[in-house]
Amino acid sequence: MWLRVLGSAAGGGFPQWNCDCPGCRAVRDGTRPCTPRTQSSVAVSADRRSWFLLNASPDVRLQIEAFPALHPRAGRATPVRAVLLTDAELDHTLGLLLLREGGPLALHATEAVRETLCEGTALLRTLERYCAVDWHPVVPTAEVDLGAGLSYRAFDVPTSKKQRFGAGRSEGRVVGYRLTDTRTGRAAVYLPGVQELTPAVRSELQGCACLLLDGTCWTDDEMARLGLASKTSRDMGHLPMDGPGGSLEQVAGLDVGRTVYVHLNNTNPVLLDDSPERRAVERRGMEIATDGLEVEV
Fold first, then answer.
1. What does the pLDDT profile of the chain (297 residues) look like in tens digits?
2. CB neighbours of residue 74 within 10 Å
3. I need a surface site. Which of 20, 80, 173, 195 has the fewest CB within 10 A?
């Protein structure tokens, strides 16, 4: 199985268009070593012919162009077989509208995500005016055969983040995916948004060969300390990397082969190559994703 990090930044990308935080400033003026990043998405394949997208970011067109394996074949035939959504966030779903020219679109999402996309943002109803959408309901804990040597099991990721579009359902608002190469049995987990590593979530991570994990913020009060927002990382639905109970501390005790942080907010100092925070991650044997990173599992 191969995973390609199409975009490694959180919503807004890096740099974010309206932000002058130290990281965004460094990208623009070149005063510190850092690499621009597009918004979070991953492509996965077990045969390098059929590919599945994990979320569809607003940068999906650029991400496809940057990865020849996703280029069209024989006219307008696409190797993209389906899109698997972890949630209904705009930075994970707006790219669906850019895939409308591809003909029927296979979309895997929970009922809670589908409801939000239909009744909340109306994104799915808009998309259906342009192309047929083949919706595959995602049921946490159910094993799903995608074909082409790949299967997945979604798992619920509890969140108390305030919903923007009505009360809706509590379960299935956010999920992670445990992806398995059916030929080798080796697994990878994609978890770009997690507020708390509950025992149930931790059990889904155990034994995976690769974990692509939420790295949105370094500290819980990161945004407030920069004077950019009053919300904490946890308020936004993301477990911080550092601090008591942070993901660095918790993941260290798990049976995980390789941990790569994705969904990195523009304010996170690990995006600066020379930062002490980056060195702290690397000392633990963990990685910070860049766009274009490929992982073979």
1. 999 999 999 999 999 999 999 999 999 999 999 999 999 999 999 999 999 999 999 999 999 999 999 999 988 999 999 999 999 999 999 999 999 998 899 999 999 999 999 999 999 999 999 999 999 999 999 999 999 999 999 999 999 998 888 666 778 999 999 999 999 999 999 999 999 999 999 999 999 999 999 999 999 999 999 999 999 999 999 999 999 999 999 999 899 999 999 999 999 999 999 999 999 999 999 999 999 999 999
2. 5
3. 20
Q: CB–CB of 116/110 below 8 Å?
A: no
Residue (of 139, 141, 101, 133) closest to 117 by Cα position: 133
Distance between CA atoms of residues 123 and 113, nearest Å: 11
What single DSSP character describes residue 88?
-
Q: What is the CA radius of gyration of the chain?
A: 18
CA distance 31 to 148: 45
List phi, psi (to 5°) of 49: -115, -45
Give dist(CA 119, CA 291) in Å, integer.
33
Q: What is the DSSP letter of 294?
A: E
- Domains belonging to the chain, first-starting first, are 2-296 (3.60.15.10)
**pTM confidence score:** 0.97
